[in-house]
Amino acid sequence: MKIALSGYGKMGKIIEKIALDRKHEVVLTIDHNNLHDFTAENLQNVAADVVIEFSNPHAVLDNIQVCFEAGVPVIVGTTGWYDHLAELKEICEETDNTMLYASNFSVGVNIFFHVNKVLARLMNNYPYYEVQVEEIHHTQKLDAPSGTAITIAEGIINSLDGKSEWKNVLTDGHDVAGEVVKNNQLLIESLRVENVPGTHTVMYDSEVDSIEIKHTAHNRNGFALGAVLAAEWVQDKKGFYSAQDMFRFDL
Ligand SMILES: NC(=O)C1=CN([C@@H]2O[C@H](COP(=O)(O)OP(=O)(O)OC[C@H]3O[C@@H](n4cnc5c(N)ncnc54)[C@H](OP(=O)(O)O)[C@@H]3O)[C@@H](O)[C@H]2O)C=CC1
Ligand SMILES: O=C(O)C1=N[C@H](C(=O)O)C[C@H](O)C1
User: The whole model's pTM is what?
Assistant: First the structure.
């Protein structure tokens, strides 16, 4: 495949390495030095088979539109834009384009998403446990809560009675006990700590014990491999997909 990378930062550079290891070709890379090169005409000129988009929440929507205009499938890893999901799905389908997005492309986190939903369903029988989500990321992260934490929270809200929305608190580790969190709200606590690639924990706490599930990324390789696998997966497809369509964990 000929791959264009919209966003050539921490993720873009690892994706390039994995793509080359898998015998793909990287035909265009975009960062702030050459933003104007990211046009539909250029994507067609370099004959890109796919765009992998890991840029930032302010740039991602325009970049997806460029991919649609060029008719090139786009894999979106950038987070912080999910308010526009329904709108993008509609445009993608109306224009007969292809897009796959994931808040987290790692296999481990996608297994975690599945376990999280099963656990939340089970916990309906034990309402005396209070649930909370915590995410920890490096200090350069622009969005909070993380996209992954939002997906985890949605998994809980859709499965657990009594929680109907999430509330985010970005802390420096201070006690969140003083925060007003309503009974129907699921607290997502966000912490920013130097060099942490991404750690997510779901905690159920009662007076007598606690249950925790936790995913710790040791580096960014799992995210990057998942994005390249997604680019390979969409090659014979049209339409709007999420990682759930690619990773199936039915027992
Ligand atoms: N879904 C997943 O599995 C994962 C998602 N992410 C998400 O991916 C995104 C990128 O993360 P990361 O690589 O760590 O961030 P970085 O800040 O390291 O990289 C962002 C890149 O985007 C470039 N950029 C800036 N403006 C534009 C633009 N208008 N168009 C295209 N590129 C642009 C930056 O250029 P320059 O540096 O020159 O300014 C930089 O090369 C974030 O939203 C993050 O949350 C991250 C990891 C996993
Ligand atoms: O910005 C990051 O680094 C990450 N972003 C994604 C998110 O917001 O969930 C995925 C991963 O946790 C790393």
Answer: 0.96
